[in-house]
Amino acid sequence: MKDRVVAGLISGLIAGVAMNVIDWIGYILKLYDERLLDWAAVVTYGRLPNNIAEIIFAQAGQIVFSGLLGILFAYIIPKLRSENYLLKGWIYGVVMNQSLYAFAIAFKLPDLTVHTFNATVSHLISASVYGLVLTYTFKRLIKDYITTI
User: Fold this and answer.
1) What does the alpha-carbon distance between residue 34 and residue 57 come to, in Å, rounded to a whole number?
2) pTM here?
């Protein structure tokens, strides 16, 4: 694939789905109540979702946001050397996760300023998976065109 934007978007969307599968497993197992989609809901509605339509829309928004982060990654990664690309992807996922936590706390977003230990650990694991899947998928999509990942 020659288009870095499209490759980043596709990689981000795929990684976003993988990240949310882990999040939903923890939520269904009742390990925590805070879902990743709740972040998108608060940004979109100013509150947590109240019904299935709002949950679906917030989930779609969260995955699209993951795709946009993939585009950002597609432009950052060429600035780095190609060794240890999975490590760099993992770092990217964790840094984005922590940045969003800091943003929510700094701007006092409703329902997102206090986090349980289980949710925090799960979201860190989800962010790690996001970074690894993002990097692996991006490298696979552009491997024949660009060799600088």
Assistant:
1) 16
2) 0.90
Q: CA torsion angle for 128, 130, 136, 140 (degrees, to 10)?
A: 180
Structure tokens at 64: 């699209």
3-state SS class at 71: helix
Q: What is the pLDDT of residues 36-45, one digit of tens each?
A: 999 999 999 9
For the chain, counts of helices (H) and of strands (E): 5, 0
Burial of 81 (0-12, 13-18, 19+ CB in 10 A): exposed
Backbone phi, psi, residue 72, to 5°: -60, -45
One-letter amino acid for residue 140 of the chain: R
Mutual angle of helices 36-45 and 52-76, in 10-degree steps: 100
Q: What is the DSSP string of 15-44?
A: HHHHHHHHHHHHHHTTS-S--HHHHHHHHH
Q: Where are the domains of the chain?
A: 4-35+67-142
Cα–Cα distance measured from residue 126 to residue 72, given in angstroms and rounded to the nearest whole number:
19
